[in-house]
Amino acid sequence: MEKKKTVVEDSDRGIYDIKNKDNFSYKSQKGLTREIILDISKRKNEPEWMRDLRLKSLEVYNKTELPTWGPSLAELDMDNIVTYVKPKTDMKGDWDQVPDDIKDTFEKLGIPKAERESLAGVGAQYDSEVVYHSIKEELVKQGVVYTDMETAINEYEDIVKQYFMKLVPPEDHKFVALHGAVWSGGSFVYVPEGVDVEIPLQSYFRLNSPGAGQFEHTLIIVEKGAKLHFIEGCSAPKYNVTNLHAGCVELFVKEGATLRYSTIENWSKNMLNLNTKRALVEKNGSIEWISGSFGSKISMLYPMSILKGEGSKAEFTGITFAGKGQHLDTGTKVVHAAPYTSSTVHTKSISKSGGTAVYRGAVKVMPNAHHTKSSISCESLMLDDISRSDTIPVLDIQNDEVDIGHEAKIGRISDESIFYLMTRGISEEEAKAMIVRGFAEPIAKELPLEYAVEMNNLIRLELEGSIG
Amino acid sequence: MNENALKNINNIPVRTWRWLGVNNISLDSTIPEVKPYKLDIIKDNSQEGLSVISMDKKNSNSLRLLHAMDYDGVGKELTDQVKNSYNSGFFIETAPHKKFEVPVIINYDFDAENNVVVDDNIIIAEQGSEITVVVRYNSKDNLQFFHNGFTRIYCKKGATVNIVKIQTLSGESTHLDANIAKVEEGGTINYVLIELGAKDSITNFRTDLEGYKSVANMHNVYIGDKERNIDINYLINHYGKETKSSIEARGALMDNSKKIFKGTLDFKKGASKSKGKEVEYTVLLSPKVRNRSVPVLLCTEDDVEGQHAASAGKIDENKLFYLMTRGFTEKEAKKLIIEASIGPIIDMIPKKTAKEEIYEYIRRKLINE
């Protein structure tokens, strides 16, 4: 019997595709040279150690090979990427002072509204620089710092110097080296000992300039017994030239601290998203990653948790949705480097219209990490027969006092489920849409309400056409 | 041979991060010179309708069929060595529509005189036939042996091929074994692969399920002790519609042993209604082992069901405690639990061939722990 396949059209991405005129006060030359880097550093008025870190990173970049695995990055031509675009405004602490075009974009993306309603602080980055940053007064009183990286280097130089690119050194891989050389913008968060930041902080990254790269650096330190939920959002309009995002996120979770890091990434489909995120978790600390990957042409994103302290924990919940022309290679890495550590990985991926979704993961248990527990589950859903879905997990266990389980499933929406829903009076299209939403539900429920709604909207946008 | 022939071998079908060291493996050992192997492996395997001959007496016409079944195996230079300078090998061909109840038994014995085996093996199961072949690589002396083998299996329409491979070489030996199978419509290939010996045991099995409703089942038992280094690389390609595969691996690691299990199920476009399942259970018996698993699923067809599961850990303490309250020592109790786990696979070895001997061999290993 020939099966009928539901055609799922690609759809308009609505607000995400709004393009602003490429207004900038300064734009670096295309490409990557020592001169460009010295120039960026000079314009930022940076201390010497930072300039030296940039130059060292450039050296590493030049001698490091491209990865020998994963999607092809042949289309990336660094000579055509603008690494630094300074928007035509300084950083503002008052939303009304942000230039209208930029303000308008963020308003449409719902950023200031979310701030009023459910956030303790907001940062907004436009191209290479942060244009807006604010934090609730009572948190400042408790000693919480939430500011852009540039300000942090000036005002908290000692702390920044101690942590900056120490967890993710430039030698790690080619795009971290690139990041080290040209990084700009990003957020710095410091939560002092014992402070519980009850409502989330959020940074939103918007890349407007065509053919540019965004290289924001996020550094978060959650001191002993403190708690934080940080949300990161990213988007960009679609241009015909390749844009590049090579951000870096370094998270330090101290003894007994808890950090939840949520991301809804919706880059446009001309973006190469080669991002690096890593958390170092100390004794009884806990890192929770929530990661939604929807946009970009190519993504290589594997947030890594290093469980360094006894009894520390990592949890990773991720969803990846690859549509037409997208190759999303995502997953997570966990290193158990101390006894009594535990990790849970739970991922879902959906591919359709010729998109490729890959789960790539690694759980490594070091010889000293006895009494490690880890459980990994990956599920993939294929919505048609022109797409691709791969699962490439690695378990590396180096002692015997462990309890490790891994499972993965790949498949399509079963005819039985659709038939069942149809017998209840639901149309075939709606039945499929319901099943996809149900598939994504375990992730959606981990997100704050506004973001769960945004994610459902993204899924709806992706499924629009004859489904939904 | 190139001195790098043992570097970066047994490559995984899709690469991943280098720091995990699973993409390929490099051995320190060297490849010895190939000299004649003088033992008779064919012996009395004659049955009506079945041809079992030594590779150097093969009929070159039948070989033409197999040219399409070329692949790199553990490493290109290693398969080339087999093709160009093999010193032993068998060629088995069945008559169509015949079931051969008595298994063919091929013993590659290693001794001081015959310490290098480079074997080229071919099995052709004609339409509708059914055959079981037991191949053993065994050494009694504790010397250093070298084995590099290449086996090609052609399972024609509706045929069933049962392959049992048992490797019990000395702890100083190198075992390199490449296998490719092609399965036509309605054909079934069943593997029982028992990896118990050698210093480096590097195996590669690729199965192409080309025909409609073709089936592959792989059952694997491994035991790592002392300094053993086990590298297992299985790939099942689902090309035909309604093809089915399963991989089941069960093992125990002791002492300083290391193991990498790479199992890949690849659902190619057009392989609709196919199903594949892969499971691996590893019991860890020493704090110094290294156990790596890479269960890969690749999929370009939506109408399939693929799943894999892997688990690793110590022996269940409740079970152990229970057996010890019944008067077993800890060692005996552990041995019983491991035997119970791998027993169902060992039991697939045909009766009167090697089953009892293999049970004995495993018991000895576990008791020495």
What do these coordinates show?
- The complex is a heterodimer of chains A (468) and B (369).
- Chain A is of the alpha/beta class.
- Chain A is built from 11 helices and 25 strands.
- In chain A, strands 5, 6, 8, 9, 11, 12, 14, 15, 17, 18, 20, 22 and 24 form a 13-stranded mixed sheet that branches. Chain A has a 10-stranded mixed sheet with strand order 4-3-7-10-13-16-19-21-23-25.
- Chain A is globular, with a radius of gyration of 22 Å.
- The mean pLDDT of chain B is 93.
The amount of beta strand of chain A, in percent, is: 35-45%
Count the DSSP helices of chain A: 11
- Please tally the β strands of chain B and state the result: 17
Shape of chain A: globular
Structural class of chain A: alpha/beta
Biggest protein-protein contact in the assembly = A-B, 42 and 43 residues
Provide a quick synopsis of the model.
The complex is a heterodimer of chains A (468) and B (369). Chain A has 468 residues and is of the alpha/beta class.
Please outline the helices and strands.
The complex is a heterodimer of chains A (468) and B (369).
Chain A lengths: L23 E4 L6 H10 L4 H16 L21 E3 L12 H9 L2 H8 L2 E6 L2 E7 L1 H5 L3 E4 H7 L1 H7 L10 H9 L4 E5 L9 E6 L6 E2 L2 E6 L4 E9 L7 E3 L2 E6 L4 E9 L4 E4 L1 E6 L4 E8 L4 E4 L2 E4 L5 E10 L4 E10 L5 E10 L4 E10 L6 E11 L5 E10 L4 E10 L3 H9 L4 H17 L4 H15 L5
Parallel strand pairs in A: 3-7, 6-9, 7-10, 8-11, 9-12, 10-13, 11-14, 12-15, 13-16, 14-17, 15-18, 16-19, 17-20, 18-20, 19-21, 20-22, 21-23, 22-24, 23-25
Antiparallel strand pairs in A: 1-2, 3-4, 5-6
Helix pairs in contact in A: 1-2, 2-8, 6-7, 9-10, 10-11
Chain B lengths: L49 E5 L5 H5 L11 H10 L4 E5 L9 E7 L5 E10 L4 E10 L6 E10 L4 E9 L5 E10 L4 E8 L4 E10 L5 E10 L4 E10 L5 E10 L4 E10 L6 E11 L5 E10 L4 E10 L3 H9 L4 H17 L8 H13 L2
Parallel strand pairs in B: 2-4, 3-5, 4-6, 5-7, 6-8, 7-9, 8-10, 9-11, 10-12, 11-13, 12-14, 13-15, 14-16, 15-17
Antiparallel strand pairs in B: 1-2
Helix pairs in contact in B: 3-4, 4-5
